[in-house]
Amino acid sequence: MEAVTINLPGCKSASQRALLLAGLAVGPSCLEGLGDGADSKELAAALDGLGVTQQALAGGSLKIQGLGGPPLLSGQELAIGEGGSTLRFLLPLLTRCRGQVRLRVADGLMARPHGPLLELLQRNGANIKVLADGFQVEGTSQPLPSPTTVPVALSSQFFSGLLMSSGSHAQKWQLDQEPVSAGYLAMTVEMLRQFRGQDCLQVDGLQWSQGPGYGQGQDLVVPADASAALFFAVAAVVLQRPICLQRPTSPQHPDAYALEFLIEAGFLERDSQDFLPLPHGHADAAFDLSRSPDSGPAMAILAATAGQGLVFEHAGRLRHKESDRIEGMARLATACGAAMEQDGDRLWIRPAGQAPTRTDFDPTDDHRLAMAAGVASLRWQGIELTNPTCVAKSFPSFWQQLDLLQ
After folding, report:
1. Which domain holds residue 266?
2. Helix extents (H) in 53-181
3. Would you say residue 150 lies in a domain?
4. Tag placement on the chain: N or C end, fewer CB within 10 Å?
5. Which residues neighbour 159 within 8 Å (Cβ) at sequence distance 6 or greater?
6. What does the alpha-carbon distance between residue 138 and residue 103 come to, in Å, rounded to a whole number?
7. 241 and 383, same domain (yes or no)
8. What number is the average pLDDT over the span 243-250?
9. Phi and psi of 163, rounded to 5°?
10. How far apart are CA 215 and CA 212, in angstroms?
């Protein structure tokens, strides 16, 4: 069977890092292949509101004139929607500025845990007021102590935001443990070194040393989104249909672990950008959600079709994503005629041997649950999605690409 070619969006994680680092760098940058999801657009709009000049170029590239350091705050009001990384990247930056700014965020984002980052910044002199619909930040431009101890048990995004916003002076960091979602942090390090040079960071276990400077503008091509690729890799397995990705994904992205898992467990073969499904995969090893937390919904669909199913470990953090994804994965399993058992932070989803009934599936405004349900609906046609437009957060053209597999 001929492979279906899928055009993925630019990686959301890489796009947001590139936008922020280009905005702080000295001189112009040209960014090609940026993600077109709402999170990336809202960060770009926030940077525009902070004085970062941007120009759309022919072919979809974006030229950014860097500020050469933190922006000046003048009472701006910035709307950043539901973007967790947008908030966690901007807050450390805004506390390093002079002046005042207000961030307006969506209700769902306000409900997510930000306490460790707020406490770190406030403990070291930042004036951040929590409002009903966002945050009021009074920047003081005061440097953090060196070393500063950084909490990384809940999210690596906190540390990524601190690293990218630093540059006015040398800084030492002490991590309080091994970071979760280390792949996202690896992406930050790689891009920091692209803008600021290979010697901008020295890493010795949990002790990190960062040199001063905001680097130089760069011409950069953003890779395709590995999270988006995973949904189509799972679709290739459950439909037994080969797919081809139009452009490569980042090997540092945490969801690259999920793609490798599919290959090592015998569900797929990969030939460059082609994913070739195999008829009899086996998941003897448990899937570690601490390494790839955003892949849970997609992997739940795989588990619903995979022999004895799939065991997931370290699932607790999934309750604090855009939605409670553990609850969402349980509903996905039921919609696919499968069952989920839970024992603490350990989940087991397995086929239940029963035909699914017609289901109206509510993704609770969670783009990854919606995309997973979309993939499932190709195999179990009784699944109807109640809010398909929420995929615009990261992949606005998802449904058009999924239709290619019909």
Report:
1. 226-403
2. 84-95, 107-110, 115-123, 157-165
3. yes
4. C
5. 150, 152, 173, 175, 179, 185, 188
6. 11
7. yes
8. 94
9. -65, -45
10. 9
Contacts of 58 (CB under 8 A, 6+ apart): none
Torsion of CA 336, 342, 348, 353, to 10 degrees: -40
Dihedrals φ, ψ of 148, to 5°?
A: -115, 130
Q: Are 363 and 355 a contacting pair, CB within 8 Å? A: no
Q: Is residue 257 part of a domain?
A: yes
Strand pairing of 171-175 and 148-150? parallel
CA distances from 373 to 42, 334, 378 (A): 26, 11, 9
- Banded model confidence at residue 384, pLDDT cuts 50, 70, 90: very high
Backbone φ/ψ region at 33: left (φ over 0), alpha (ψ -120 to 50), beta: left
Averaged pLDDT score across all residues of the chain: 93
Instruction: State the pairing for strand pair 243-245/4-6.
Output: parallel
pLDDT reported for residue 355 = 67
- State whether 243 and 156 are in the same domain: no
Element housing 127 (H / E): strand 127-131
Asked if residue 388 is part of any domain, the answer here is yes
Instruction: Tell me the two tokens of residue 351.
Output: 């086929």
Q: What is the CATH number of the domain that holds 127?
A: 3.65.10.10
Measured between alpha carbons, how far is 315 from 345 in angstroms, rounded to an integer? 5
In terms of domains, do 253 and 383 share one? Answer: yes
Considering the domain architecture, whether residues 95 and 203 belong to the same structural domain is answered as yes
How many angstroms separate the CA atoms of 297 and 370, rounded?
Answer: 9
Closest CA to 83 of 112, 62, 54: 112
Residues 123 and 205 in one domain: yes
- Choosing from 182, 211, 240, the residue where a domain stops is 211
Co-location of 157 and 281 in the same domain: no
Region 45-50: mean pLDDT is 96
The model's pTM is 0.93
CA-CA-CA-CA torsion sign (207, 167, 131, 387): negative
